[in-house]
Write a structure and sequence with these properties.
InterPro entries: YhfH-like (IPR025432). Pfam families: YhfH. It comes from Peribacillus castrilensis. This is Protein YhfH. By secondary structure, the protein is mostly helical. The chain has one domain. Helices cover 27% and strands 0% of the residues. It is built from 2 helices and no strands. The longest helix is centred in the N-terminal third of the chain and has 6 residues.
Length: 45
């Protein structure tokens, strides 16, 4: 079994997409959001 360099693993991950509109989300550290800021602002509380 080949061991993958952890840095290479994270570099090759596809960009996260918003589950509502499908646009790419610019991720921040420790962020678990699945929707973009635009979709989150449209959501009613």
């Amino acid at each position: 079994m080949q061991t993958i360099n952890p840095l290479e693993f994270f570099r090759t991950l596809p960009p996260k997409q918003c589950t509502e509109c499908g646009t790419h989300i610019i991720e921040q550290a420790e962020s678990y959001l699945l929707e973009c800021d635009r979709c989150l602002s449209r959501r009613e509380d």
